[in-house]
Structure formats: structure tokens, C-alpha cells
Amino acid sequence: MNPILVTGARGQVGVEVCEKLLILGYKVIACGHSDLDITSENEVSSLFESTPISLVINCAAYTAVDKAEDEEKAAYAVNALGPKNLALECKERDIPLIHISTDYVYDNGKTGLHTENEGTGTRCVYGKTKLFGERFILDSGVRAVILRASWIFGRYGKNFVKAMANLAASRDSLKVVCDEFGNPTPARALADDICYIADSILNDSCTDFGVYNYCGYPSIVRNDFARVILDKAREIGMLSHDVEVHPITSEEFGAKAKRPADSRMNSDKFANTFRRDLPDWRLYLEETLRGL
Q1: Among the options 62, 126, 156, 214, which is catalytic?
Q2: What are the φ/ψ torsions at residue 191 (nearest 5 degrees)?
Q3: 278-287, pLDDT tens digit by residue?
Q4: Which secondary-structure segment (H or E) carries 259?
Q5: 17 in any annotated domain
Q6: Closest Cα to residue 7, out of 95, 74, 98?
Q7: Which residues are paired to 28 by β-bridges?
Q8: pLDDT band for position 75 (50/70/90)?
């Protein structure tokens, strides 16, 4: 079987995906930005012309949400044009594609659990560029599974869990927003399920292409998420003092990008289609903290 191409292979999900694929016995072409610039149509085309590929997993993304407000062209290139380039090459060669999107497409004013059937909307550059990426993939006609994931954290790379632990190490109080409601998602669980889908596609047992919500459970408010993280850090001996979490509003925090106030997702479509249990994110905190 031809190898699987993994883009964004040095990111927190990409590393996990590559590790899992190798454990499953697949050959992997692991590409970070320095190996393959997915924003370059010529580079992508050249790779596909010279290398036999059985499936593409796109983990590449511009994820600096606030920075994207000042670097819209760069965010658009990675989050929109990159997926477009991959999708068009995959379509031409009948290669299936798995792509990671975001819960930020649900900043549409609705509250409660969002489903794939409702309209999308977003107020920040990051969300808009990710939504463009989704649309380019769907418009290409490629056989694709798009997973809208939220609040990803894991052993590799930068994420909210590590940031809270690092800040708490030298402080006795933290200010964390109290008006963002969502679902933390463990990178390793996401990677395991991506690889399950990949395996199903390559063994011709998956025909359910389309857009799916994917997230951990339970839902939680951002400042309470911080408290759970710090409690776990104390429990495993990584934090020796108490740290008080002070709730503040997003407006008070002053972030440049407008994030969704309620991006909780209903992932029943994913669970029922692929017959997979969604992860309890609390079970992945310790391994993430020890990743520091």
C-alpha cells in the first residue's frame, strides 16, 4: 500500500497521528512546513506527481488566533489555500482526504450544543479562514472527512493546559475568561480516531464522507477548565501551592480576536457513524501536564 501523507506533522495533533499510524503498520510521509509548503500550488502538485500516496491527513493550520487578526493573508494561505491545494490534487487522483477544522465556525449567536446542520458564522480571521478551507474542500468534490475539533490540547506543542500550568508555577493567582463555553479535546484521542477513520477508508469500510463535529466531554467554561487543570497539577505533584483563578470577561481580558461565547458541540453524528466513544478529556490531563 502507498504511504499516507500527513501535513502539519510537527504540530500537537500531527505528531500523535504519525505515531499512531506507524504503530498500525502504515508507511508515513510526515511533512512539516519546511518539508512541504501546502500554500504553494507548485510544491503540492510536484509532491503528488512524484510520490504515490494512498490518503492525505491535513493537520496543518495557522492557529495563532490573535496574531491572525494582523496576519490575515498568512492565515488565509495556510487555513484556506493549503486545504484547497491538497483537495484539488486529491480529487484529481481519487485520493481521500481527512482534514481538521474548528469549533470557531459556530460563532453564529446560537447557544447550546451546535450541530453540523446549522448555519455557520464567525467573527475572527482564524475562524473565517478555517471556514474557507472547509468550503474549498467540499467544493472540490474530493472524498473527504472534515472534523470540527475544539480546544485541542495534548502532550506536544503549545496549548491552554500547558499555558495554565506554566503560568501557575510562578504565580498565586490567574485571570481567566468566564464567558467562553466549549469542549476541550485531547489531541491523542483525536489522532486515534483520525487513524481509525483512515484505516476504515483504506480498507473500503468507510463511505461516510462529510463534515463532523468532534470533541471531548463534558462541556466547560474556560475559567473552570483552568481550575480543573490546576487541581490535577497539584494532585500529581507538579504544583506545590494554591493558585486562585479569578474570572474576567473576554472584554476585560482584551484579546484582539473575537472568540465564540458558546461553541459547545453535539458530536452524536460522529459517534453514531463511526461507532466510536468520544473522549473524556479529564483522563488526558495528566499525560499532557507531564509533557511539560
Answers
A1: 126
A2: -65, -40
A3: 999 999 999 9
A4: none
A5: yes
A6: 98
A7: 4
A8: very high
